[in-house]
Structures
1.
Amino acid sequence: MILVSILGDFHSSIFPLYYELKEKISRHIVVYDDSFSEIKKYKTTIDSLSRFNKKHSLDIVTEEFKLDEDSLQSIEGLIRRIKELDNTLNNVYINTTDGLANISIVLASKLLDKGVSLLAYDMYENSYNLTTKDSMKNITIKSSMGIEDHLLLKGLVVESQEDVSFAHRYQAQILDLFNTYSDELEYLKKDIFHQTTKNKNKYPRALQLVNHMGLDIIRDAKVITGGLFEYYVYLMVKDLGFDDIKVGMKVHKKLNNEITVENEFDILLMKDNHLHMIECKFTKNINLQELVYKYAALINLIDDDGRIMILTNKHDYNSNLYDKTKIGLNNHRRAFLNKIALRGSILRNKKLFLDDVEAIFL
């Protein structure tokens, strides 16, 4: 198969179909416009494809084709190149998903009735249309990317992630700690934060559970005050039907050859080629405005249509955003408009949380 991909605005313009068809592709022509922004995007895409092919030992020839989308002559040059590779055109598939519309229109008008097949991916349905001169059929995507491959193809480099085997090994203790002794854990966290033991008599069972997990309140302070809650949330969602889940993943993206920008995600959830995130803040004292602005800026980094849920330990789990009489909801409303769900304590609202996970992510 010769796959022709027209570089568009979104990750989904190329990669879900490339992933689905990777075992059939012999040559991949990546088409992009000659504008500066498109050239920069192309370089990132080619680097990601190269790393992906190497990781999966794929023998795919990647070829670039730069053109001027406003020039018919330039697009006809692409047509000539396609015919050089396969004059029958029967093995040529053009991915028109979110590509530059003018290029797709010209290619379809000149090649569809000569044997070329057109592909168009629907990221909302996780399926694609296969169109020939005589037919069109909808095909459901069978291969869902794992989180690491998704991030790789987004141009991100994974630095590290937490080992969820810890959560499985100590599942009973983690669940008991939060379901039964969360009030004690609050006192333990305060002592760790203030580097004191003055409240030690208020968290005997919580300390016993923490010690049973092999955690030291000094050496493992970060795990106790934050990581354990991430594991708790992971244990709640791990069997709900996600394709892949990662905890505590640290990534970076290159700004240039010398500078990278790092980010850390508490829980990443993959479903049907969409990557979502849960941010876990087991505290009542949190700057919601800062969090909303941060993740509103990050949401497109992880996925074109991803969703984010931010969990805190505030008493109110959810709020009616349309209640004009209720004050203090500006952060919640701003979050909602940016595909972010702000939520309070899940310890007192487990069913509401699980219903939310299904409605928002699944």
2.
Amino acid sequence: MPTAWRRRLDGDGVALLLATLRLGGARRESAALRQAWDACADDPGLADLIDFEGCALWLARRLRQIGADTALASDLGGFVTRCARDIAARNLLVDAETETMLGFLAARGTPCILLKGAARRALAHQLPFGDARPTMDLDLLVPASDALGLWDDLRARGYALGFPAAKPRPTHHHLPALVGPAGVSVEIHTSVAPGIPAERTWQRLRSTATTIQRFGVETLVPSTTELLWDGMMHAVRSGARGFRLHQLLAASCIVATGGGTELREVRDRLARPSTASPSLAGAWLHAATWLGGAGDGDPPAILTRSLKWRLAVARRLPASHRVLGVWADEASRLEFDLPPSRGVTGGLRPLGAALVRNAYRFWRLARAS
């Protein structure tokens, strides 16, 4: 931890949050982090920011890891602990659905590859904090020839449409989400992204996948390179929403394992002209790499600036994910030269988008002066 940055921890909730979430090399810095958390326990807006970023479970584990018992006993620590329990409970529901689905697929004779959160949770024994990110649904990749029959079988077993009007679309990369009895959404994928042929996706992921035992069933998970790449591409497709901590932390656990090979391969792919939103993808990978403990120095400026803006908004506006999401994401869209989101132009109209963007511009100018 650079000396100048250590001095900024006192009274700076964002710097302290990032320093604590970052993996690797923090053991010798635990005392400084504990002391800083004691001074930051009453920071207004920090609880809302932690909740919004979806990092409470990760943060609660890191605070216990560094011995920050006083911080955990504070009002802020109690809030973090409650949010962490909610995330953990939801993750367990997804685990239960994964167990049910893997048993059903095995009995049916359908091969599958676990994707996204389900894959990281299956690899938690080798990915540090790999199971500490919120997992909202279950994503499965199956051969295209099996997908529709599987989807129909699940509908016959009582799985409901996540969106009642949704119908299978042959050109889409996954079938409409289904919701099982436990309330967990299941998405059956034939590809990992729009426009990528199903057969090519299955062959690419299958050729590098790892066979594991999950809930007593043999199944497949993508290689860590594919997990990192898919996480970045999913974030890019999400636009500004992809530049939130819970998305970045999902990749940082791969970097923390010493994933130099993965990073080189992903950077090579990122350099190809066909990559969408290269500025967002590059910033995302840089931030995720830093959070994974790779490299020295301060966190990326755009990551710190984005979180400080969100904290400033959380301190001044009602505690609402929807409100904070509009103000946070529109600022990020401005940073990455993306057009106003449809949610802003449709909900607040163009005048609202201009208001958010101009407020962010003035805030940046005020901080620079």
